[in-house]
Amino acid sequence: MKAIVALAGGVGAARFLEGLARLLPRRRTFIIGNTGDDAEMHGLHISPDLDTVTYTLAGVGDRKRGWGLQGDTFHCLAALGRFGLETWFQLSDGDFATHLYRTERLAQGVPLSGVTAEIAAAFGLRARLTPMSDQPVRTRILTRRGDLEFQTWFVKRRARDAVIGVRYAGAAEAVPAPGVLEAIGRARAVLVCPSNPLISIGPILAVPGIREALRATRAPVLAISPIVGGQALKGPAARMMKSMGMASSALQVARLYEDFLDIFVLDHADRSLAPAVEALGIQAVVTNTIMTGLRRKKALARAVLEVL
Amino acid sequence: MKAIVALAGGVGAARFLEGLARLLPRRRTFIIGNTGDDAEMHGLHISPDLDTVTYTLAGVGDRKRGWGLQGDTFHCLAALGRFGLETWFQLSDGDFATHLYRTERLAQGVPLSGVTAEIAAAFGLRARLTPMSDQPVRTRILTRRGDLEFQTWFVKRRARDAVIGVRYAGAAEAVPAPGVLEAIGRARAVLVCPSNPLISIGPILAVPGIREALRATRAPVLAISPIVGGQALKGPAARMMKSMGMASSALQVARLYEDFLDIFVLDHADRSLAPAVEALGIQAVVTNTIMTGLRRKKALARAVLEVL
Question: The dihedral of CA B245, B251, B253, B254: what is its sign?
Fold first, then answer.
């Protein structure tokens, strides 16, 4: 059975994939996760986007925040503060266990893709989740204050520095994780989740070979716009696009994917952009893309599956 | 001002030192801690005896157990169990922070003595606490099941395997931590805390130079018996001594320290052993050594200071 392949960032992707998983309970999806915002904190390797997808699909994620573990405590982090360490990156006690496990397995020589599969299995995921690459790729945010490490810009400084540019350090030397190119080549369909095109999907596309595989695959490639009415559903996407000199519109997202995209899903609020999307040679599909609650997540996934 | 130097294991030592610290609030003591039972768990460097002393003197230790942090949770450890990891070594969420900090600083090249001082400072300790050595010394327990790593024997297997012998792996290549030999040489007095002579004090004495410094110092060297009426106040000392072919008595402890000991403090229950201790050329002092409650801890410390 051919798989549905998904390119995924964090919260927005996880929400969409949760709806999709409810509709395809017996079908394994192949999720290619962003590791551009991975970080080293307190000596631990943290993969925020991979964990957000894992926790959400496992049903243990915090639904309100969209990230982290539901109902978890922050006692270890509070105790780290005693040593004068920076504690702006919120790590809960159960979350620390995930990072401890990942870090120890990496130190034992297991590649990130292997550890990610082990963690997904421990959380009972049916979907196959794999990082875009086993090599480190680190998103750097160029601002007037200089070149900032992603989490410093995003979490510590709350994304308040205007973004001039984005760089994916290490991408040129990275290779796609095992199975990634094959999955795209043999997919029934490829879905680009409603994630930030610059900092969630961008790092995945920057790994040499992945963008080419998306162009070459015979499977339809469908993206769901993370921008609705010129605003990001979640996060700084719209502001980043503006400060980088782009329009902050769904159409702009379609343009960023133009070379490999077959179908683009827009919200009703953006139905006026559909002709311009179609003018790019991309099929435009208008539906409700705002995922408040599981019912709407499933409705969006259903709309996507119907198009395919 | 000359310092009081103390050789310390874990729980028994910490209890005695807590009483001593109350009597000498303005005097800094120099505590040489055992690292023979240090271990690597989940990729972290754990120093159980150093932490027991730190937590106890900081007043944040769990008084009932004698180790760990008062009122702390075990959420991270529980979450590690999800990954199939062994969770028999009880690590609380706040405790993980200490080990994360220690491990990261060691990885940055700070020696264990430096990290230990930083942790002690973070907990507001007035006493100077230092490991016996910056090099790894690992106590190995010889049993009929073979040679067991200390924590595996002590915690995982609950010390149920009869001990044939004890080995301090790495001791021959270790050197005393900075300041240790100087502190012993210039001490006002050296106290050997009521700790297990084989697995708490033994590793300290096995570091080349320390035993010699105890013999050579002009300061009086005083030990408090951890054995009362043939039983250990805490832990497996008495059983170990028996299975290793020794008498499980306070007198036997005095014999183990005979070459450097000036004064030996026995419990009233062992007053009949005093003449035999004196026959070794060691001054015997009989008092109450059972430290139930802070009042008795202080009383024992007062008795020790009066002898000195």
Answer: negative
Which residue in the set A43, A93, A97 is minimally distant from B104, CB to CB? A43
> Per DSSP, which regions of chain B are E strands?
4-8, 29-33, 39-41, 44-46, 128-131, 138-143, 146-149, 165-169, 189-192, 221-224, 227-228, 231-232, 263-267, 283-287
* CB of A67 less than 8 A from some CB of B: no
pLDDT beneath 70, residues of chain B: 1
Query: How does pLDDT run across A71-83, given as a tens digit for each residue?
Result: 999 999 999 999 9
Instruction: Tell me, yes or no, whether B202 lies in a domain.
Output: yes
Q: Name the residue among B73, B82, B101 with its Cβ closest to that of A73.
A: B73
Q: How many interface pairs between A and B have CB atoms less than 8 angstroms apart?
A: 91
Residue B143, domain member (yes or no):
no
Domain that holds residue B58: 4-62+102-134+176-307
The confidence score (pLDDT) of residue A69 equals: 95
Backbone angles phi, psi at B232, to 5 degrees: -75, 140
Inform me whether the C-beta atom of residue B77 falls under 8 Å from chain A C-beta atoms.
Answer: yes
pLDDT for residue A28: 80
pTM confidence score: 0.93
User: For residue B223, is it within any domain?
Assistant: yes
CA distance B48 to A134: 36
Look at residues B47, B42, B44 and name the one whose alpha carbon lies nearest to residue B10.
B47
HSE (side-chain half, CA atoms, 13 Å) at A240: 23
For A72, nearest residue in chain B (alpha carbons): B75
Tell me whether strands A138-143 and A165-169 are parallel, antiparallel or unpaired.
antiparallel
Q: What is the ipTM of this complex?
A: 0.90
Choose from B44, B45, B92, B100 for mutation: most chain A CBs within 10 A: B100
CB A210 within 8 A of CB A132: yes
For residue A118, give how far its alpha carbon lies from the nearest alpha carbon of chain B (Å).
8
Residues of B in contact with A118 (CB under 8 A): 83
CB contact under 8 A, A82 and B103: no
Give one DSSP letter per residue of B130-169, joined into a string. EESBSS--EEEEEETTEEEEHHIIIIITTT-SPP-EEEEE
What's the pLDDT score for residue B151? 93
CATH of the domain at A239: 3.40.50.10680
Mutate to test the interface with A, among B76, B87, B116 (most CBs of A within 10 A): B76
Residues whose CB is less than 8 angstroms from the CB of residue B215 and which lie 6 or more positions away in sequence, other chains included: B259, B260
* Residue A85 contacts B where some CB pair is shorter than 8 Å: yes
Say how many domains are in chain A.
1
Work out whether the CA dihedral A90, A94, A97, A103 comes out positive or negative.
negative
Chain B contact present for A73, CB below 8 A: yes
B264's CB contacts (< 8 A; 6+ apart) are: B222, B223, B225, B250, B253, B254, B257, B277, B282, B283, B284, B285
Query: Which parts of chain A sit beneath pLDDT 50?
Result: none
A100 is a domain residue: yes
Of B112, B67, B113, residue with least CA distance to B91: B67
CB atoms closer than 10 angstroms to residue A21: 22
Contacts of B79 in chain A (CB under 8 A): 93-98
| A192 touching chain B per CB within 8 A | no
Cross-chain Cβ contact A75/B72 below 8 Å: yes
